[in-house]
Amino acid sequence: MKKQLLPLLALLSVPIANANEVNLQALQACTFVENDFNRLLCYDNIMAGKPLSKPVTTSQSLKSAAPASIVESKNTAKAKNEDFGLEHKEAAKDNDDEITAVISSIEEAPYGELIINLENGQQWRQVGSDSIRLRANDTVEITRGMFNSFLLKKAGYNRSIRVKRTN
Q1: Is the pLDDT of residue 68 over 70?
Q2: What is the pLDDT of residue 14?
Q3: What pLDDT sits at residue 119?
Q4: Among 103, 86, 105, 104, CA closest to 95
Q5: Terminal C-alpha separation, the chain
Q6: Is 33 strand, coil or helix?
Q7: pLDDT reported for residue 61
Q8: pLDDT by residue (tens digit) across 80-132?
């Protein structure tokens, strides 16, 4: 029985001996890539044996850069809300997925769509024929939907309408 197992083990160990070692440090470096596509590309290149195309920062340099990024994110939070909904017109990235604002005025377009002006200066126009009751001084939430669409709903309610930003 032992004589039969020895050749079998020798045959099974051949692929392991010839397998390339995976660079674990390079794989760990890929975890710091924030963009999903670039992170997947990093993993694919390492598994294919290709060198990394871009230098990836180590965890120590990320820890030292963290306080600066926190200060920067606080300063740009206001700018992010101003660009919310304009991604299709501008190349703005890293925006929030939701904003909350108060309605300053509501107008009606010629075909009955609502034109909603918010106190933060944004103007949103209803897309489609869904209905919702809105008044000035109502608090609304605008969330990102599928395929660059946006949904507006009154805070505390479930009914929503599709909207697009006009300014």
Answers
A1: no
A2: 59
A3: 95
A4: 86
A5: 81
A6: coil
A7: 46
A8: 677 777 765 554 345 568 999 999 999 999 988 999 999 999 999 999 889 99
Q: 152: helix, coil or strand?
A: strand
* The overall pTM is greater than 0.70: no
- For 67-80, what is the mean pLDDT? 57
Structural domain boundaries in the chain? 2-47, 98-165
**Structural contact between residues 134 and 102, judged by C-beta atoms closer than 8 angstroms:** no
The per-residue DSSP string of 87-133 comes to: TTTS---S--SEEEEEEEEEEE-TTS-EEEEETTS-EEEEESS----
Q: What long-range pairs does 101-105 form, CB within 8 A, spacing at least 24?
A: 101/139, 101/140, 101/142, 102/137, 102/138, 102/139, 102/140, 103/134, 103/135, 103/136, 103/137, 103/138, 103/139, 103/140, 104/136, 105/136
Please, are residues 101 and 139 in contact by the beta-carbon 8 Å criterion?
yes
The span from the CA of 84 to the CA of 122, in Å, is: 9
Collect contacts of 57-62 with beta carbons under 8 A, ≥24 apart. Answer: 57/32, 58/29, 58/32, 59/32, 62/32
Mean pLDDT (the chain) is 77
